[in-house]
């Protein structure tokens, strides 16, 4: 429930001190905001920082010098969560926060609406000294941050819209060159509206362990082997994994291990998806189909896949260490 400030005290002042309301407001301000737009947010990496701007134009309509303290409060759309603030999208919610300082330690909050007192939330204030009939313009930076650790955020568009009921401005003014030390004075609800938006991208991270067939006497057939891949992809995102031995120009998952130095002998092998060694694991996967690769759906957490292999060629070769590099291709 949104509660507008000072309603009772204004009524009391009207009853007991009506002449005070006759005081003219000499300093007035208009405001606008660019909002904050986060693009390319990668939920698998660290936080994302972007700045926005709140611009103001303040005028002194008096015939003498006036000084003012202008305080800008930002609540939360629909009285929603403020710690953290939340953008909504088709993939759920995305946590973010708005700050007053570049170090992002002081949350831009409100003097009148709920927040997190332990973080010292308050409005963002600036002061002005204006000559008679002078207008001054300027801006405040709104420091935005999409919080780290949201690996479960699904790719897509997110937004949080701040309407007129979510911002508030107070102007406390007095004669002379010294601005008042505190907020207060005339209150204006909804001096500006803005939107915070974000585009969360698709992404995957991969790590792999080597596969070692071990030592074998020339002419003997080594036992089949296996290893694991760890694939971390954005939540709810379909992806398809292909394996491409770099020793051959093919897509069937067949490769050749090469010896060292001047040794030109090779040992052929084949990659498989299953322990029975009946389904090859090749590299015809695309961004929309698995082909002879493996299909999966990301969760934002690491997912393990097992790769099986066997030697298919003769080991009656020059004694040496034989190896090949397999490229892991994740398509999405």
What's the short story on this structure?
The chain has 332 residues and is mainly beta. The chain has one helix at 7-16, and strands at residues 27-33, 36-41, 48-60, 66-74, 85-89, 92-99, 124-130, 135-146, 156-162, 167-175, 186-189, 194-200, 204-208, 225-233, 238-245, 254-258, 266-272, 294-297, 302-311, 326-331.
Written overview of the protein:
The chain has 332 residues and is mainly beta. It has one helix at residues 7-16, and strands spanning 27-33, 36-41, 48-60, 66-74, 85-89, 92-99, 124-130, 135-146, 156-162, 167-175, 186-189, 194-200, 204-208, 225-233, 238-245, 254-258, 266-272, 294-297, 302-311, 326-331. Strands 1-3-8-6-5-9-12-2 form an 8-stranded mixed sheet, with no helix packed on it. The protein has a 5-stranded antiparallel sheet with strand order 13-14-19-17-16, with no helix packed on it. Strands 7-4-10-11 form a 4-stranded antiparallel sheet, with no helix packed on it. Residues 1-23 have low confidence and may be disordered. It is 3% helix and 45% strand. The chain is built from 1 helix and 20 strands. A hairpin with a 7-residue loop joins strand 16 and strand 17 (266-272). The longest helix has 10 residues, at 7-16.
């Amino acid at each position: 429930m949104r509660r507008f400030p000072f309603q009772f005290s204004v009524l009391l002042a009207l009853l007991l001190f009506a002449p005070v309301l006759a005081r003219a407001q000499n300093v007035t301000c208009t405001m606008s905001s660019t909002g904050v737009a986060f693009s390319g947010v990668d939920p698998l990496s660290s936080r994302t920082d972007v700045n926005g701007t709140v611009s103001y134009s303040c005028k002194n309509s008096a015939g003498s010098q006036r000084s003012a303290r202008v305080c800008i409060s930002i609540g939360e759309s629909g009285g929603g969560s403020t710690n953290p603030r939340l953008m909504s999208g088709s993939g759920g919610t995305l946590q973010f926060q708005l700050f007053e300082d570049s170090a992002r330690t002081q949350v831009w909050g409100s003097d009148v609406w709920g927040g997190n007192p332990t973080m010292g939330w308050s409005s963002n204030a600036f002061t002005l000294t204006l000559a008679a009939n002078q207008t001054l313009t300027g801006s405040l930076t709104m420091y935005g941050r999409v919080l780290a650790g949201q690996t479960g955020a699904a790719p897509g568009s997110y937004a949080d819209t701040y309407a007129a009921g979510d911002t508030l401005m107070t102007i406390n003014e007095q004669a002379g060159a010294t601005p008042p030390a505190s907020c207060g004075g005339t209150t204006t609800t909804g001096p500006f509206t803005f939107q915070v938006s974000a585009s969360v991208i698709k992404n995957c991270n991969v790590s792999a362990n080597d596969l070692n067939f071990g030592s074998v006497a020339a002419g003997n057939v080594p036992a089949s082997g296996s290893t694991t891949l760890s694939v971390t992809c954005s939540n709810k995102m379909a992806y398809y994994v292909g394996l491409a031995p770099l020793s051959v120009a093919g897509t069937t998952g067949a490769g050749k291990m090469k010896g060292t130095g001047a040794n030109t002998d090779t040992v052929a092998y084949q990659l498989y998806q299953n322990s029975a060694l009946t389904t090859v694991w090749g590299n015809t996967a695309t961004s929309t189909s698995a082909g002879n690769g493996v299909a999966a759906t990301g969760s934002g957490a690491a997912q393990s896949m097992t790769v099986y292999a066997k030697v298919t060629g003769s080991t009656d070769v020059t004694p040496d260490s034989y190896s090949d590099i397999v490229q892991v291709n994740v398509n999405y």
